[in-house]
Known about the structure:
mainly beta; 2 domains; five-stranded antiparallel beta sheet; 3 helices; Immunoglobulin-like
Amino acid sequence: MVFKKLMASLGAGGASVETVLFEENVVPGGVVQGEVRIQGGSVPQRIEGLSVGLQARVEVEGNDGEYKQDVEFTRVRLGGAFEVQAGAAHVVPFGLEIPWETPITMFLGRHLTGMNVGVTTHLAIARAVDSSDLDPVNVHPLPAQQAILDAFGRLGFSFKSADLERGRISGTRQRLPFYQEIEFHAPAEYRGLNEVELSFVADDREMDVVLEMDKKPGLFSSGSDTYRSFTVDLQAYERTDWAAYLHQWLAEVGGKRNWL
């Protein structure tokens, strides 16, 4: 028994955890439902805590360049401490709210390359190696976000890439320690633009939309970035022709080549 306890403290033969999601497809502001299944190991063990959260892989700029970092941006504790007997099974149901700023991982019916968001489970075991689990979720756009994305498509922009950046977008309602950038190739009509980067920062009422427009260089000038932002009411977004609205700004910035 002493040997088994020693091995369990090192992670061999200890309690394990598995999380099952009832629905992997979610939207910001929604709830992901599931259950945590705990399987006892070879000896009884005291569980000090059980929690579930959301985790994203984020790009961070450091002194030695960029690197990836897993950032947990919400966590919920499930109950208090308890003891799991050897070989016993426990099932703990949960509902985890999806923050409104959660980045989109699905676009046009496919997963966005580079987007890694999932439900993380942490089982804290007294005097032993903790057990954990990570289950990916598919975060689909809110209707208002889909309307903006569709408008870019109607204007001829094509998807290029997406990433998560650690930091803040000034002047927005941002609360998370990172933000998403969705990058588009500009069509020939906007001949003064290389690309446009789009960011959403939402809460339960409104959404900040931030555009970073990359202008092409001219004969005697280098390229430059131009920023625009506006606010969208999540309940009244259908009242606006977003393709026409975006075209006004995009044509102003990229309608002609900046030759001088």
